[in-house]
Amino acid sequence: MKKRSSPDIIATILEAANGGIGKTRLLTKANLTSTQLKKYMDFLL
Fold it and tell me: Is the pTM of this model over 0.85?
């Protein structure tokens, strides 16, 4: 599996969250752990 860059992960999160999404679905769609998602959400907010 190729390592994704932070901009790639952020783009995936934003695309998945467009229009509204729950945390669990976002974790699945972005293929992240809850710790990773929290890190990126803190950055984005």
Answer: no
User: Please, what is the Cα angle at 31 between 25 and 37, to 5 degrees?
Assistant: 75
**Residue ranges in 1-45 assigned as alpha helix (H):** 6-17, 23-30, 34-44
- The 10 Å Cβ neighbour count of residue 13 is 22
Backbone angles phi, psi at 17, to 5 degrees: -85, -10
| Residue 42 CA: distances (Å) to CA of 1, 2, 45 | 26, 24, 5
Tens of pLDDT along the chain (45 residues) come to: 578 999 999 999 999 999 899 999 999 999 999 999 999 999 999
